[in-house]
Design a protein that fits this description.
Elements lengths: L1 E6 L3 H12 L4 E4 L16 E3 L6 H21 L4 E3 L2 E5 L3 H14 L7 E2 H7 L10 E5 L3 E3 L1 H14 L3 E3 L4 E5 L4 E5 L2 E10 L5 H6 L8 E11 L11 E4 L6 E5 L6 E6 L3 E2 L11 H18 L9 E9 L6 E4 L6 E5 L8
Parallel strand pairs: 1-2, 1-12, 2-9, 5-14, 12-20
Antiparallel strand pairs: 3-8, 4-8, 5-7, 6-7, 10-11, 11-12, 13-16, 13-17, 13-18, 14-15, 15-16, 19-20
Helix pairs in contact: 1-5, 2-3, 2-5
């Protein structure tokens, strides 16, 4: 029997399994797809990590997480993080920008001024914002190499004696002082269970009497080519806080010479296994908005995506994640709705 079973081997499940193994626990990590895969939300070469949140509690989490990434890099003997800094901008939500400034000043060293569009253009001539734009800079932010992070967690988990079984679909969970997880590859027992399976969380939790307000979105991930080979690699990461253009971007490590610029939302789909069956008109509308933003803000990029890929978000109504115990079976813990929070 195991001390813990963790369902879902994305970044949340793999990091949880790793943390439990570090505490000397006997842990089994289950994944329904072959490892690695691209069906969830943890795949890809890059994610933004930042302290720049208007919510102070997210900043407090990142203050701890930043040092933990460094510890993992050292243990795994591999580079997982690239420091770039992040420009946080808005033309309308000035209160949210001020709240972000407060978070940064609490958890980063030194003052964090709010700058205007003229100063943005002075610092970053390849970017062009309207005169009403305001911004602040997160000096702690950077790029996490997403695939490498997940693999590092799994590798260090296994090095500490953890067991991973992929291509193992959970069918049913029987709660109790000893939890039994029934799968298509047999049943496994543990003293505790952690459920971190992203968009598939509702399937397992509903069987346990828990209904979470999770929504699944299909996301277009777009990469943009520079005009005449203009080098954008020295730009910082950026995030727009505006509700009508909730957009983020970064110099990409996936494709040489391309910028990764995406909307921070997508098109709702019926479920994680239906993410390729979405409203094509809604996707075209989103892409048009994104293209217009690129054309106005990045004059040295071709305003048409050179490459389009898909990802998947699992979100809650207020875009904050959920971590909790089962109300009756306290040895069952679940986490969901992390998309776009803590990492982009």
């Amino acid at each position: 029997m195991y001390d813990y079973i963790v369902i879902g081997a994305g970044v949340m499940g793999s990091s949880t399994a790793y943390a439990l193994a570090k505490e000397g626990k006997k842990v089994l990590l289950l994944e329904q797809f072959p490892i690695p895969h691209t069906r969830g939300s943890s795949h890809g070469a890059s994610r933004i990590t930042r302290t720049a949140y208007p919510e102070e509690f997210n900043g407090s989490i990142m203050a701890v997480a930043n040092s933990m990434w460094k510890d993992l890099e050292k243990e795994a003997e591999t580079t997982l993080f690239k420091h770039t800094g992040l420009l946080c901008t808005t033309s309308t939500l000035h209160k949210e920008l001020v709240d972000t400034q407060k978070t940064l000043q609490r958890y980063n060293t030194g003052p964090v001024p709010i700058i205007d569009s003229a100063e943005i253009s002075k610092r970053y001539p390849l970017m062009s914002y309207p005169k009403e734009e305001k911004a602040c800079f997160d000096s702690s932010a950077g790029i996490l190499y997403a695939d490498k992070c997940v693999m590092a967690f799994q590798r260090m988990f296994q090095k500490r004696g953890g067991e991973v079984i992929d291509m193992c679909k959970v069918q049913h969970v029987t709660p109790g002082d000893v939890v039994t997880v029934h799968t298509d590859r047999g049943s496994f027992q543990a003293k505790g269970l952690v459920i971190t399976c992203g968009a598939w969380s509702s399937e397992i939790l509903s069987d346990l009497g828990i209904s979470l307000p999770l929504q699944v979105m299909a996301i277009q991930v777009c990469y943009w080519k520079a005009r005449n080979g203009v080098d954008h690699s020295r730009l910082p990461l950026f995030i727009s806080l505006d509700e009508i253009s909730d957009i983020y971007g970064m110099p990409t490590s996936e494709y040489d010479g391309l910028m990764k610029i995406c909307l921070h939302y997508g098109v709702l789909c019926a479920g994680p296994d239906m993410r390729d069956n979405t409203d094509s008109k809604a996707e075209a509308k989103n892409l048009k908005m994104l293209t217009e933003f690129v054309a106005s803000t990045f004059p040295y990029l071709v305003p048409e995506p050179a490459i389009k890929e898909r990802c998947m978000y699992t979100v809650t109504p207020d875009n904050q994640f959920i971590v909790d115990h089962h109300p009756i079976h306290r040895n069952i813990v679940f986490g969901a709705g992390f998309s776009g929070r803590l990492v982009y």
